[in-house]
Amino acid sequence: MKRSRFSEEQIIGILKEHQARLGAKDLCRKHGISDATFYKWRSKYGGMEERIPRPSVLISISKINAANVFVVTRAEAMFNQGVRMSTSPSQCHQ
């Protein structure tokens, strides 16, 4: 299968240019693609700009993942040392 010259991010950028009221024919000429390719991309990637996470979201997710790894590692260490962690509320207040 032939690999595309354009990444998904580039394709979405081209589609955003079209949403900014640049004509499809002019856009195709500017980027060297056919009309059929443009309309195929529009049908495939048309609503994806909302689905691609922003870098700030990705950084937040990575911080959350790091915190989760710390908590799990700490719980495993406590378990290995024989410390029991209670999940029952009645046992927590003893």
Number of domains: 2
Oligomer: single chain
Tell me the strand percentage band: under 5%
Shape: rod-shaped
How does this model look, in words?
By secondary structure, this protein is mainly alpha-helical. It has five helices and no strands. It folds into two domains: 8-50; 55-92. It has helices at residues 8-19, 24-31, 35-45, 55-80, 89-92. Helix 1 (8-19) packs across helix 3. The longest helix has 26 residues, at 55-80. The radius of gyration is 25 Å and the shape is rod-shaped. It starts with 7 loop residues before the first helix and ends with a helix.
Helix and strand layout, with pairings?
Blueprint: H1 8-19, H2 24-31, H3 35-45, H4 55-80, H5 89-92
List the keywords.
mainly alpha, 94 residues, 2 domains
In a nutshell, what does this entry contain?
The chain is 65% helix and 0% strand. The protein has 94 residues and is mostly helical.
